[in-house]
Design a protein that fits this description.
mainly alpha; 4 helices
């Protein structure tokens, strides 16, 4: 039997809890309810893709929020955007933001609509 000190056990529990909190955040905010792969590479790829999507949605939300007059929390924005139920005012402002992006950088975002 291996004997571990109480301090070491507390440290191990704290590290595990930190990982649990991280994955709860990933499931809640990145919309990753389950990991599809079991290898390290597939888990990294799935999480990396989810982080990219999160950053892009956060960027679009922040840019649109500055111009929209109605308040919409970020999580509601994402849920409504993904379900196609975003308010018309927000759609209009998103169009303005994306048109500005196209004008500045000379390229659009494919398949937006």
């Amino acid at each position: 039997m291996v004997h571990t000190s109480a301090e070491k056990m507390a440290d191990m529990y704290q590290e595990r809890w930190t990982v649990e909190v991280f994955f709860r955040w990933v499931r809640q905010y990145l919309n990753v309810p389950a990991l599809f792969g079991t290898t390290e590479r597939t888990v990294y790829n799935q999480l990396f893709a989810a982080f990219i999507a999160y950053v892009l949605l956060r960027w679009l939300y922040n840019r649109t929020k500055k111009q929209a007059t109605s308040h919409l929390p970020f999580i509601s924005f994402v849920r409504r955007l993904l379900s196609g139920q975003i308010p018309l005012e927000w759609k209009s402002e998103m169009g303005v933001v994306l048109f500005e992006f196209t004008r500045i950088y000379g390229r659009g975002i494919p398949n937006f609509g």
